[in-house]
Amino acid sequence: MEPTVSADGLDIRRFGHDDLPRIRQTIIDLHAAAAGPDRDDDFKKKFPWFVDHWGGNPAFACVIAYEGDEAMGFAYGAPAVEGREWWREHLDEAPKKAVTFSYSELAVHPKWRKQGVADKLSRALLEERPEDLAVLLVDVEHPRVQALYEDWGFRKVGERRPFADSPLYAVMLAELPLV
Question: Which residues form the N-acetyltransferase domain (predicted)?
Answer without folding.
Answer: 10-175
